[in-house]
Amino acid sequence: MSNAIQSPPVSLDRQYALPLDMLQRGCLWLLIAVSWLVFIEPSPYELMFVVTFMLFLPHGMSVGRQMVPLIVFLLLYNIGGIFSMIPRMDSQYDVQFTAVSCYMAVTGLFFAFATAKAPGKVVQVVRNGSIFAAVIASLFGFVGYFDIAGMAD
User: Fold this and answer.
1) What is the spatial distance between Cα 102 and Cα 74, in angstroms, rounded to a whole number?
2) 79 vs 70: CA distance, rounded Å
3) pTM (2 decimals)?
């Protein structure tokens, strides 16, 4: 007896149905794979996160009681950051730091919730996407370091 819940197929045409879990894993891989590109704002990672999060909302995340400490401590940390920022609201740096901290907490919770549903599948997808991103980033690092094609700066 399996505890796995089968995802409903996502399809525009009945002939070509794509299971939701396959679409979720593909989007998760793409989210991780584009994480090497960070020198533009907003980065593709941030845009892909919104798409991936929306795809995982229907049937891709699970919140268990073992995640309560993570949720509580991230909430306390970010609430403390927001309250301590109140006297420094005129500082763009402080506001940006707090916003990024809140965003990182949300992405951390997303990965925890997504991994809880199917740990083996999600970890494999994240590992493969990370390897791809690392190879691409290292290739660009070599190009910049050795000044290949005048791309050092």
Assistant:
1) 9
2) 14
3) 0.80
